[in-house]
Amino acid sequence: MTCIAGWVGLGPDPDRRTAGVAAMAAAMTPGGPPAHGTWTDGNALLAFPGPPGARPAALVEDGEVTAVIAFAGTLYGPEGVRRVLDARGHRPRSGGDPETVLHAYREWGADCPVRLDGAFAFALWDVRRRRLLLARDRLGVRPLHYARLGDELAFASEPKALLAGEAVDPAADADSLRELFTQIKTPGRSVFRGVDEVRPGHVVELADGWLTERAYWRLQSRPHPDDRDTTVATVRLLLSDAVNRMLPEEPAPCVLLSGGLDSGAVAALAARTSAERGAKPLLTATGTFLGHAENFRPDHVRATADAPYAAELARHLGSEHVDVVLGTADLADPAGRLAVLRAQDRPTPFAEMDVAAHLLFAAVRERAGVVLSGEAADELFGGFPWMHDPELVRTGHFPWVAYERSHEQSRDGLGLGLFDRGLLRGLDLAGFGADSYRQAIGEVPRLDGENAAERRMRELCHLHLTRWLPRLLDRDDRLSRAVGLDARMPFCDHRLVEYAFNVPWRMKSFDGREKSLLRAAVAPLLPRSVAQRRKSPFPVNQDPAYARMLQRELAAVLRDPAAPVAPLLDGAAARAAAGAEWPGGSDWLARTNIEFALQLNTWLAEYRVQLAV
Predict the structure, then answer these.
(1) What span, in angstroms and rounded, lies between the C-alpha atoms of 293 and 165?
(2) What are all long-range contacts of 387-394, with beta carbons under 8 Å and residues at least 24 apart?
(3) CA distance 316 to 262
(4) pLDDT tens digit sequence for 47-78
(5) How would you classify the pairing of strands 36-40 and 58-61?
(6) Phi and psi dihedrals of 272, rounded to 5?
(7) Helix axes 469-481, 351-365, angle to 10 degrees
(8) pTM
């Protein structure tokens, strides 16, 4: 188990807490033996990664346990904070990450996360003060959820655990559906009623029956004094440092290659570091589909196939490269699709890409325990097409939502083409989006003297980092951990994020292209074809057999009067989609409608979700 769970409070039924926490921990380690230890003092019960009977990391003063921690994740480059702690008289027993956090807490109290660098979530119980701290890393790579139960509080890395422990009932209300039906991540909210999320860069504290939440980190707007050459050099230095700190000495890690600029930059820097350390050649991996390179057909977002560029980059770096080739049968496997749904605890319109990513992670796990990816580069450096479309930049909405709705198949929102129009009107997704947008814009830190154009692009960068990226990080973390793989994202290093956020847009796009600044920083490390390649999103399968499989599954749902999703569908639209003749059967936007309806049906059934809308 790489997750944590627990229950704090003085409720009338301690046996319920014990059984609940055991069920919560088991829900996050399905199909295997228990992989968690537990600790209790009568007021708090914590489950933490480790074998049954293991003791948690604890602070001990005068022979008495004063604080314990349940920690999930990894600290990057913790030697710095450990040196500071050592100079102040702290002597951790093991020197591991959990003990480092405990001693940081002893030194700096609830402000200790400010001193930490990494992808982490932890629950720290202060025995003397009877105080619980829940904390999450700055960008929110690692998840952490909780449910308030009167004077008690239950928490777990994943919502499924809170459901399994009967802390809350599996229910979804109108706000839940709004979260599911829009590509907008509301900070702090889950898709289950009664389940909240610790927001990235925040600490939740429970003490004396009071629950409070505060930010320990936020993006700040600052003047950017550097010229272009200095900025290019600083971006290269910060990214290189992030890769170095996230790259383990042993075992040999892997880097995911898409054949594009972002993953290429990470791979090139990782290969250089590995060579300097005298380590084994870097392992790289690319996910592709059977016959994809030979039969690739460009669409409005994918101009080229990944595999040829990834292979060229692997040759350039001298990495040990593997192509993970997936077939339609792999993507259509019901067990695999269910595993992906349960890993994420929610349905999405992107089931095909999620299953492919899950299978890619599983293949990598056979060779490595850590994988690095190029996630978050687009959000930082302006890689999305809608960030370069003046009309979409000016829209008073999230630009990716406006971009989606500019396509006929997703005019109601991505994946919503088969749902009842009355349901969609009742949910008022447009109003929800407008309210979310106003809230998000209100959070953007201002910079005095910034002109309107630069201010707008700062807003767009902030929107992507707080309302778009969290969904991607959550997906990557959940799908990788589901197969026992530790996924790390160097572009999420907070020092790089803080610096890039404050680089003016005119410098980020100085040559009129997407990601001009990043390209200038890393192009000397890459083959020219890779450095100059236009962004191409995660590939999708173009085999018509896959589309036909989806249609058969949809037809079966429509024939089942007890299908949970049936009352939510527009019957005529669903029947038309089940019998549609698509050119080559490869209309991806049309397929997302079917994918989402099928995923929602499975989610409602598997989680026994009660709809309250």
Answers:
(1) 47
(2) 387/457, 387/460, 387/514, 388/509, 388/514, 393/456, 393/457, 393/460, 394/456
(3) 16
(4) 999 888 888 999 998 889 999 999 999 999 99
(5) unpaired
(6) -65, -45
(7) 50
(8) 0.95
